[in-house]
Amino acid sequence: STNEHLHSTNDRLDRLERRQTEDSVRLATELVAVAHAVGEVRDLLRDQRLERTKLEDHERRIAALEKRAD
């Protein structure tokens, strides 16, 4: 009957809506995790850049000391 068909269609729509909501929550959760990982990578790259700058400075200072020692 038409009522049964309508009830069946509504049930399918409800299931589809639940799946879409679950997918949205899952995607949002993953997006937060990705944003956190990107922040960690950014911090690591910044730290590496600072360490490289310190290393280059130390190498310059050592070279200057070696020149004075010669």
Distance, first to last CA: 103 Å
Radius of gyration: 30 Å
Query: What is the 3D shape?
Result: rod-shaped
The helix/strand order is H
Show unreliable segments: none
Strand content: under 5%
Output the structural class.
mainly alpha
Percentage of helical residues? Answer: over 70%
Q: What kind of sheet is the major sheet?
A: none
- Give the total of beta strands: 0
Mean pLDDT: 96
Number of helices: 1
Describe the structure.
It is a single chain. The chain is rod-shaped and about 100 Å long. The protein has one helix spanning 2-69. It is an all-alpha fold.
Break the fold down into its secondary structure elements and pairings.
Blueprint (H helix, E strand, L loop, with lengths): L1 H68 L1
